[in-house]
């Protein structure tokens, strides 16, 4: 058996393979493309393609695909064989530079929000040499961007790369002002912690709601949920452990640095965290991770649920997007330094993020807005929909002292003059992990905790990168003009703290009192649902920042708005239809069947001794008959509303109708169904219950 070191990355065409298989000249040209974004000429591409092909064929590949991330949120691939006819009527395996650089999938069925008129339906994919090619099954996958012929981005990778470039440009300006000329590149680096549920596959297949929508739409509370806190970090069960072992092996072969695994709060809930890397690669790897999780689960007779809220009443799943800024010289710009200058620089980057989060709350919120995530963010669960920044007590006290120009009461009592004094040492705040904060500083990185478990992390990072690029741009403009840099820096940091401290909050973000304070006293946004959040992308300020940093064109923003609204409407519509279907075809027949058996017992007893001493049967029968009526009525009402929804032409109006009419009607249907479940004998209930699903594995 191969050791982990041996098989790690064995299915990746990485730098090691390139060094072995490319000529020195081609390798260094390729390296310049990867590190500095230099354009690659066709000759080099041909050499790389040919090396890739023979390497892939040796590893059992027969096909290649341009692997891309359309706006559906999952990855797409169209496989082409390497085979090509040879003179003697047989075949050779070949792959050209042209095929490597550019592909033309028939892309008319991918959402484009009107960007790509159907008459010119062909978008094209373009190789992203900064993310390594890899083999999945028998296919060589080449990470690519996906664009229309007009050059508009039809995917998530293109704007992500653009936002990284914008951030790089502005961060370098700041570093130059600090006299740093050696850093050539600043990159956002990301470590996404991925939560998921594992349930038994047989049970999954018995529930239409899980099959069609990835979450349960019905289900009474089981006697036991997560109240004993006995699952979090608990011993991992053998079946789950064997899934995790397999998953790690698959991911490691693909060069994904899967590192940490543990049980999460809810029963059957788990988490996987990789080691952080460049935002672009972290995004690709997270997409791969989700895909491989599903595939490996299947092999173990399990299903991996990535939905944000598969079960009502227990914790939902998210993704903690750990984010910081790293230089090509290996420095983390969000790490407090040792010298006065490093400290001042750290504080400047810190307040740049604080300002970015305050100024662009709505962009961050809408970057994670989906129908699924509304069950977490807009409901009684952490994190809330209101965005705030947690810094911990110590760092907050430092900022407070700077702002008020008062002595910092740390180990030494002294006033802090930035740029001249060494900052008091503050340690990572360990007293309060504050899981309720949507955006927490954890020592040397920020953790954005609102991302949904099933979503791509691309959008969150696009918005975060862009918002921070904008703060840095404003800072660089101002500091660049200053005569006395130190004083200007000091003033800038003080002013920024004072202007944006309303976004800082160390308390419990989960409490109603906070939401009230945030909205009423601090004027922070509380965008509870997806439509509320999404419309904000059209606000002037938001549009301007995205366009001015070259991250999106205006038409790209508008098309994305439409696609996401559509996605919201369609997702909920599928759920609503599934509910009607389950209510009519499964729940009502079951309840009515059980009622009939109760009625039978009652009449038998009556016939036997003329008595009506059937306390349980009578009580239950009467309760169930009224529930049956309620269910029937609620189901009719929901159906009518779906019909009405289909009559509405405008997508924004549709989304509001879904929010205000369809979702409440779904809730109205769920209640009597869940109640009926508690009163119906198990053998009659048509599908596995919460207890079965959550505690079976
Ligand atoms: P936690 O205490 O939140 O579990 P960890 O140290 O376990 O923190 O890290 C969680 C995730 O954050 C991991 O994916 C890790 O690689 C990533 N991470 C750690 N340091 C950084 C950093 N400087 N920038 C970005 N991500 C980071
Ligand atoms: Mg964490």
Give the key terms.
23 helices; single chain; Ubiquitin-like (UB roll); seven-stranded mixed beta sheet; binds adenosine-5'-diphosphate; binds magnesium ion; 3 domains; Four Helix Bundle (Hemerythrin (Met), subunit A); globular; nine-stranded mixed beta sheet; 697 residues; Creatine Kinase, Chain A, domain 2; 20 strands; alpha+beta
Concise account of the structure shown:
The chain has 697 residues and is an alpha+beta fold.
- Radius of gyration over all CA atoms, rounded: 28 Å
> Under the CATH scheme, which architecture of the largest domain would be assigned?
2-Layer Sandwich
How many domains, in number, for the residues? 3
Q: Unreliable runs, pLDDT <50, ≥5 residues? A: none
Number of helices: 23
CATH superfamily of the largest domain: Glutamine synthetase/guanido kinase, catalytic domain
Mind summarizing the main beta sheet? 9 strands, mixed
The overall pLDDT, averaged over residues, is: 91
Name the ligand types.
Answer: adenosine-5'-diphosphate, magnesium ion
**End-to-end separation:** 29 Å
* Strand portion: 5-15%
Proportion of residues in helical segments: 40-55%
Report the count of strand segments.
Answer: 20
CATH domain fold name of the largest domain: Creatine Kinase, Chain A, domain 2
Shape: globular
**CATH structural class of the largest domain:** Alpha Beta
Class computed from helices, strands and strand pairing: alpha+beta
